[in-house]
Amino acid sequence: MKRLAAAFITALALAGSAGADIFTIVPNGPTAPLAVPSPLVPNQPGTASFSLTPPTVPQQLAYPQLLTIWQQAGAEYQIPWQVLAAINKVESNFGRNMGPSSAGAIGWMQFMPSTWERWGVDANGDGVADPWNAEDAITAAARYLAASGGSTDISRAVFSYNHAQWYVDEVLQLARLFDSGGVQTTFTLDRLQVSLDQARSAVVRANRKLVAEQRVARARGARERSLRIRAARAALLSDRLDLEQRAAQAGVALAPAQARVAALRKALDRAQSSLQDAQQQSVSSSFSPAAGTMLATPEYDGNYVFPVGGGPSVVVVSHFHHDYPAADIQAPMGEPVYALSDAVVQRAWRYPDPRCGIGLTLTTSDGKSWTYCHLSVLDPGVTAGVSLVGGQQIGLVGMTGDASGPHLHLQLNPQTMYPQSLPWFRGFANVAFRWAEPAPPGYPEVAGPASSGAGAVFAVVPNQPDGASSPAVLFTR
């Protein structure tokens, strides 16, 4: 009973508040902080010194050090520390992914260099405004939010940070979660996410090694069979004996490859078992939408589930497939893949097909047939004839088969329509994924938050919604 009560209390803490954006600002750090630049006037040209090159050894901070910086920067500019923590998490995963991004954004809070020149801060007093330094970058982000009116309207300020409603929702949900659960929840969730990410990566690596060795074993096995067939058909005794000898040598070479396959299969089993343990540990912490996004849990809407976890900050879909009706759901390697509804597996293949890679075909309870392609691995037990529950994990995102990058290829059978044109799929826009581009003319959109625009890439927008002279800045992960 004590365990159940503790889990219930944790779930309540993680559920957060659905009310107004009210946060507790907790001052921390030095009693007399350094004087910080005004949020009302940007830096003069050439006054913010920085480096575009990542440091040889990236800065790594312990949780208490990060908390001190968030709280001090928040107190200096009257921005809730929870919002700074949430943006820090979404933008660079607490400094684990500092870029440069594909758009050129850099550092702890992913500033574009030109924007850093205007808003960068030398918060630690070392003479350099450094976007690769957590104290400088987080303080600069607080300054920019304050310049956007964050001390009175934090939602509007976060919107100026990235002109996408899904981004505002994700950041503020996460900030509410950090506020309601406190510091313990903030870092417990981060540890759970790190544990899940590491376990998923271990499964991806283990299956990649297994498939590579299976390829070797299959090639050697095929050579042995070919030689034995040729030997059986040889007209001359000398030819037959020569071919049988070569076949025997191929069999000798096959044995160690088969032994390595068996060992690697056991290693995959262990990695998948560890992933199941990590998933079980995260179950009690996944009730809040914000926590669910961090932990990449499934998003439900009626009888349907979006087939890839991770949320709109990392999951991207184009309105159209490149050559025939299908959906390419772009997501980081190892993100979880889910059954989109209650279904029965018709076929499943763990060794990559040349085009589809690793995947499966399932039939949902409404009679529709769906094929998933390019997975990095299928979960244990996903075999022909097995019944699946909507939202059940069936594998991890990959790029096996004919794929140029990690994504899930999803198609109806036969390919008579685009999955992303279906109302249930479009209903997940800006909740479970973001569109890669604006909707084409006449595309059947559904009501909901505005699209994030062309790929939600970093950009500097000259005018803010209130007509202020300072630019609005769109950030990206």
Reported CATH architecture of the largest domain: Distorted Sandwich
CATH class of the largest domain: Mainly Beta
Tally of helical segments: 10
Poorly predicted runs: 1-33, 446-477
One letter per element, helices H and strands E, the order comes to HHHHHHHHHEEEEEEEEEEEEHEEE
What's the count of strands? 15
At the fourth level of CATH, the homologous superfamily of the largest domain is Glucose Permease (Domain IIA)
Q: What is the average of the pLDDT values?
A: 85
| Strand line-up across the major sheet | 10-6-7-8-12-4-3-13
Structural class category: alpha+beta
Task: Characterize the overall form.
Answer: elongated
Major sheet, described briefly? Answer: 8 strands, mixed
- The fraction of residues in strands falls at 5-15%
Oligomer kind: single chain
Span from first to last CA? Answer: 42 Å
Report the helical percentage: 40-55%
Radius of gyration, in angstroms, nearest whole number: 26 Å
CATH topology of the largest domain: Glucose Permease (Domain IIA)
Number of domains: 3
